[in-house]
Amino acid sequence: MYHNLCMKHNRWWRDCVGYVIYPQAYLDSNDDGIGDLRGIESKLDYLRDLGINLIWLGPIFKSPMEDNGYDVSDYLSIAPEYGTMDDLKHLIDRAHELGIKIILDLPLAATSDEHPWFQMAIKDPDSAERGYYFFRKGKLKDGELVPPNNWASFNSIPAWTKVPDSDEYYLHIFAEKQPDLNWSNPAVRKSMADVALFYLNLGADGFRIDAMAHLSKDMSFSDSNLPDHGNGFVLDTDKFSNRPEVGEYLKEFSDALNVDHDPCLIGEAGGGITPENAARLASIENGPVSMIFNFDTVWNNGAFGSIDKKDEEIKTDLVLLKSNFQRWYEKCHGVADMPLYWCDHDHPRVLSQYGSEKYRNESAKCLLTTLLFLYGTPFIYYGDEIGMSNVTYDKPEDFFSDSATRTDVAYLRSKGYGDEQITHYLNRCSRVNSRTPMQWDRGENAGFSKKGSVNKVNGNYLQGINIYDQMRDPWSILNFYQYAIWKRRDALLNDAVINGTLEFLDFYNPDVFAYRHVGASCELIVVSNFTEKEVDFPFYHAIGEVILQNYDNVYLRDHTFHLRPFESFLLRIRNDE
Ligand code: NOJ
Fold it and tell me: Separation of 59 CA from ligand 1 center, angstroms?
């Protein structure tokens, strides 16, 4: 057996088109209003036909669901609302029969406060479990006990919560109910590797390593010197994100898994990871993980935190978007593999961000073509294949299934914002927009469940935004997705995309996203108009074949493409002259 442990065995994910499933919202097989594993299994044939061959399955472990499964209370049990261990095994086996791999979302930087380790840590300060987390004594300030330092969490609250009847606090960089695990403790590292091995032995093909960037903390726990948010607390990611020890922890973790398996390990890296750092961690030669999800290509339209902005101010900054893709490509090509995505369960729907609800059909196809042929392994977020878009809910409470949105709303109300403005903002920015039920047909709750759903279904399922209707329409977004995905998996095209060179065309053009791959045996060009207006784009190549297009024809005259709103195509270039 090959034992250069960090060396990836055959990097099978380079031939994959991935698909992201948020389990709670995909399909409810037992009509309790919550999606489940059997529901997902019943749609595997659909997914195989769509052309995807890799699923990233959102977290399914037992959890009080404070953070919708990212707060695990038992890693070795399946959340009963999602099914059983047998259901998972079935799902994996059936997926494998259809040629689909499954990676599980593994939240291993923190647990739920209902996990037995944490319960024991609270109950007995001398227990071994106390060392699984970060407990520190509070400080006395003007005679009052305050947190050990001034760190704020990502959820706009202090990163420390006091242990009742004690002068100690515990650290949580997300919600209060998600105490952070202390990865500097070898027992924690061993336990999490054992969990991962358990699921690999069950048949899983790898993991999305949730919150990977935050595995290590500044163990001096010194105060941040950055300016505070007015309440004395500071979100200073340098204190707990992308610190050097993350690589060491991941190496130990992946070495344990690589002995008998060939898993795909995708790290989720917020906290401003640099492409250089990511290329090291995912290095083909000796990096501990397979790929890194970065956040640099989301929110490139000024929508993040945009409560004070008018709708007209939210505009895709296409040059910024291209430069982010380019930066990552330049550092990773030939050195590290990369995942590609437009959005996931932590962002609003991409169609409402970079696309256009007015040009839904054209923009959904344009977004897909643009992403699919960039360097990397593309991941499609469930529902994007029918052009699902943001919701139009009526009140902040409609978004309250999400704890982060609840804290946001409390904060905004405390700052004096009215509910109308907050609702408008949430309809634009809340991540609940991406967590509504999958729209299967025109039936009750869009065919998701007879019972209802955690988040209200988007009413537009009655206007053709559902799988059933789009399967029957040859020009639908869904049929385009299917055709495009199978093209993306063509070996010749895949070789040009993965191994060929990538060059952006007319880089500073603010309206058009265009690029060229020069592969060993074919040359490809993508041209995409990212606006609702008509745009001319100069072009001096000889077209060999139009592989994908989202209008009836491609209009080229006098070396100029006349692009219609969100027009996009993929061409093979003739270089025989
Ligand atoms: C990253 C997950 O994607 C997100 O949904 C979650 O809230 C945070 N980790 C914290 O658990």
Answer: 10
